[in-house]
Amino acid sequence: MNFDIIPAIDLRDGRVVRLRQGDYAQQTTYATDPRELALRYLHDGARWLHLVDLDGARSGGLDNLTVIKAIAEDGLQIQAGGGVRVEDDLRRLFDVGVHRVVLGSVAIREPEQVARWLETYGSERITIALDTRRIDDRWTLPSAGWTEPEARTLDELAPWYVARGARHLLCTDIERDGMLAGFNLDLYRHLADIAPQLAVQASGGVRSLADIRAAREVGARGVILGRALLEGRFTLEEALAC
C-alpha cells in the first residue's frame, strides 16, 4: 500500500508563505523562490508536490497560475488548488501540467457539480479537500480560505463523495494548521471509520517524523508537509525514509 510524503508550497503574490490556522493576517514569508524550492524537493526524492494558491482561495481566481505552470514544467507530479470554482478552472490547471486538482470551497458548496467533474475527469484527477474545524461536537467545513461558515459537515460529505466515486481526500484540522502541534489523530481515525474507501492525506501541524508514522498507523495514505520542512524540523529525505 502506497504512503505518499507530499511537500507543500503555499503561494501568495508569487512567494512562498505559511499562515497560522489559515489566518491571512498571521503570515510568514520565506525568502526561497517557489520554483527553486520545488526543484530542491524533486532532487531530494519527492514524487508529488502540493501547491496552494492562497490568493485564489480568497479571490476565486487562479492568481498564481503562472508560478504553478513554471513549477509543473520541472517534472514533479503536481496537486494544486485554491480558487477553483468552475470547470474552466480545472481545464486551465490541467493544461499547465497539474496532475490532480484540489477542490475545496466548491466541493462544500456545490457537491453535485463536483460529482459531475469526478465522472468526467476521473477520481485520479481530483482531490476533494474537506478542511475542518471542531465546533460543538461537529466537524464543520468552513470555506473561502476557511473564512466563511457552511452548513454541511465532514460526516455528511465524506461518505457522500465516496458514493460518487471520489478516491482522494485531503483533510486538515484547521486549528492545527501551521501550529507544529502534531496531527489530530482522532480526526483521521474518525475518517477511517466513516469513509474507509478514501485515500486520506493528513495535513495540519506535523512537527516530527513520529507524527508521520502516527498518521500512517491510524489509516492515512499520505501526509502534507509544510512548515516543518521549511523550518528544518527534519529533512524530506528523513521523511521519505520513515
Automatic annotation (TrEMBL):
Catalysis performed (reactions): 1-(5-phospho-beta-D-ribosyl)-5-[(5-phospho-beta-D-ribosylamino)methylideneamino]imidazole-4-carboxamide = 5-[(5-phospho-1-deoxy-D-ribulos-1-ylimino)methylamino]-1-(5-phospho-beta-D-ribosyl)imidazole-4-carboxamide
Location in or out of the cell: Cytoplasm
Principal location: cytoplasm
Top-level lineage group: Bacteria
CDD domains from the UniProt entry: HisA (cd04732)
Pathway: Amino-acid biosynthesis; L-histidine biosynthesis; L-histidine from 5-phospho-alpha-D-ribose 1-diphosphate: step 4/9
Keywords assigned: Amino-acid biosynthesis, Cytoplasm, Histidine biosynthesis, Isomerase
Catalytic machinery residues: D10, D131
EC number(s) per entry: 5.3.1.16
GO molecular function, a single term: 1-(5-phosphoribosyl)-5-[(5-phosphoribosylamino)methylideneamino]imidazole-4-carboxamide isomerase activity
Entry similarity comment: Belongs to the HisA/HisF family.
Protein name stated in the entry: 1-(5-phosphoribosyl)-5-[(5-phosphoribosylamino)methylideneamino] imidazole-4-carboxamide isomerase
Organism: Rhodanobacter ginsengisoli
Taxonomic lineage: Bacteria, Pseudomonadati, Pseudomonadota, Gammaproteobacteria, Lysobacterales
